[in-house]
Amino acid sequence: MVQRQPELFADGLVFGEGMRWYGGRLWMSDMLGRKVYSFDEVGQRRIEATVPERPNGLGFLPSGALVTTSMADQKLLRMTSDGSLAEHADLSHLMTGYCGDMAVDAQGRAYLDDVGFRVFEGEPPAPGRLLLVQADGSASVLESGLQFPNGMAITQDGKELIFAEGRNRKIWSYELADDGTFASKSLFSETEDLLDGMTLDVEGGVWQCMPYRNEIVRYLRGGRITQRIPFGALKPVACALGGHERRILYVVVCDYSIERMARDDTTAQIFAVDVDVPGFALPGDRAA
Length: 288
Known about the structure:
four-stranded antiparallel beta sheet; mainly beta; single chain; Neuraminidase
C-alpha cells in the first residue's frame, strides 16, 4: 500500500471535534471556538451555528436537520427551519460530565457519551456512560462505568455501534436491537494508547485517532493494523471519510494540553489524505 502524505485542507481553528461528511460538505465542531462549521471540497468554510456552551458531537436527523451536543450545559440541540438552534433534549439529569461525541441512526436516535467528569473545572477522573436519545428527545442511560467514552460511529448496515473507550484503550462493538438498545457487546480491538475520534469504511475498517501517539491508525476487527498516518508533533482528535467517492480521509489535528484547553489557548488544522478504501454515506444524506 502506498503511503500518501496528508495535505493541509483548512486552518485557523481552535479545537476540532465531531467531524462528519454530509450533503457534499465536511462538517466540524470548533469546540473551543464555539462554532459549527461546514467546508466545501476546497476548504472554504461557512458558519452553520454558534454554540456558546461548546459544540462537540454532530449528527443529522432523518429530516436533514443538524443536531449537536452542547457540552457544558449537557444538552442536545437541533437546528430549526429558520436556522436557529432549539433544545432537542436536556440531559442534565443523566450526565455527570460533558456531552462528547455522537452518532445518529436512520431513525433519528442519537447515541452520545458522557465523559463522566468536568475536566476543565479540575474534577478528578470518574467513570462515564453512554446515552440514547430517542427521536422525540426522551433519553436513557445504556451503559455506565466506562473509562472516558469517546469516538463512535454506526456501521453501514445500521446494525452495530462501534465505540472507543478512550482510557481503557479498547474499541467495542455493540449489536443494536430494533428499539435502539444494546443487544450484545463484543471487543472489536485492543489498541496501543488513549483514543479519540473515529470513522468507518466500507470494509469495516476503523480509522482511530491516537492523539498521544500523534497518529491515526486503521484497525480491522480482531486488532490487525493495516495503516498508520503520522502527524509529527500534532495530535489527531477527529476524522471523517468524504470528498470525491468518499476516498479522502479528513483529520483534525490540534496543538493542545488539557491546561491550555481550559484557557481556550489551542490551535487546530484539518488535513486531507487520499485512501484506498472509501467511506459510506450517513443515513438520509440526499447528496450521496
